[in-house]
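Hi all, long-time lurker, first post. I run a small reading group and we've been trying to get comfortable going from sequence to structure in the token notation. Rather than ask abstract questions, I figured I'd post a concrete chain and ask someone more experienced to write out its structure so we can walk through it together at our next meeting. Sequence below, copied exactly:
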Amino acid sequence: MYNHLLYLVYWGVNAVVIYAAGSLSGGAVELGVNKFVPLEAAVYGGFWMTFIVWTVWDFAIARGYKLGTGMTGMVYFLAANVLGMWAVTKLGVITGIRISDWLWLVGMALVCNFAQRLVRERLAGKVKPFV
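-- Answer (accepted) --
Happy to help. Here is the structure in token form:
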């Protein structure tokens, strides 16, 4: 049950970060391209980003990577979030999101990374090992 709740909360966190970036970016992050409204694009983008991060996380578990709770895990999940955000942008027809500045992409991934870490700490009561 913990993993289901964590997935849903990650989805919500990612959607909020995407929506906030779309509101604050001044055009660098466009939400609602290709028939979507901005909120809908943020929700779809948050879902697909969470799906990609979760898939990369499952890959790490299956391969037996020892990410631990320190910087190794943070860097690994930052890379996963950048990959997820990049994929969401490239699939703009499906997600309704267009990011024209790579600094916004990396910044959004960084904010998502720290927010996901905070959520994980709160739901687990303490930081569990990533693997």
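A couple of things your group might point at:
The chain has one domain: 2-124.
The mean pLDDT is 87.
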